[in-house]
Amino acid sequence: MKLTAPHHPFPADAEDRRAVAPVICYPVDTLPPPDLALYARAREGMEKIGEVLVPPREARMFDAPAGTFFRIISVDGPQVGDLNLWNKHDLSERFYAGKTRALHGTHLSTGDRMWSSFPTLRPMATITDDTLDWYGFDDFGGSVHDVIGTRCDPYTAMLLSGAPYHQCCHSNLARALATQTGRDAREIEAHVHDVLNVFMCTGFTRDTQQYFMKATPVRPGDYLEFFAEIDLTGGLSACPGGACDDKHSSDTAPCHPLLVEMYRPVNDALAGWSSPPVNGYDRSHGV
Fold this sequence. Notes:
The protein has helices at residues 14-18, 36-43, 97-104, 154-161, 169-181, 185-188; strands spanning 47-54, 59-64, 69-74, 81-87, 90-94, 113-115, 123-130, 143-146, 196-204, 211-214, 223-228, 232-238, 258-264. By secondary structure, it is α+β, with helices and mostly antiparallel strands. The protein has one domain (49-264). It is globular and about 70 Å long. The protein starts with 13 loop residues before the first helix and ends in a 23-residue tail after the last strand.
């Protein structure tokens, strides 16, 4: 956060400098738009092919093949989830929260895409339905499904409190990925990455511009739905903060499970669709 009382005097043209109008860093008009009409047709009559229940303060893995849908569903009570996505065949291709934020903004909803890391930089998943899209931005500047926060982790907990906390989302995802791959959690944790904070209500304070959270508006039955653009492995942690109305790493916050359901279209509803290719840049870097 910036100092509230500057150490240096205002220059004579300070107001002119501050009045310069902003421009969008990454205009998305040239991005190929998702075919939401195609996805809507594919959702009609889709059949459930599996589910994974994520226990409170734990994480679980799931697979979503290209051309299928998956939903993260609130069950039992308000609960926030931290989502990681990987290319099922190559863990080095993973969700890139920072670039997704640069392209779509701080919070995601229907029609936004989750982009993969360099050098592939392509859509991994497209959000196709969001029962919390009515929330928008509140008077505090808060909204849901953010790509701002990184995930609660034991390193920051140690830095701020001097004590380890192993049920945080980073450690939950590391344990789940270690179980999935048969590798040691210390080795595999490097593949755990910045998340989509599903159902979490967040923003920045007006005065200090600090990242804040407030009680999630999610209720049982609400869901966030995705279309898998490539073969995906997902990891979802049911955050130990529960509704994240007080703390996001806590053994005392009321916590609830989250349900992941997987669906596939029927009757050739995706005829003509194909997974997006990897990014076209030749990786020469001017050499």
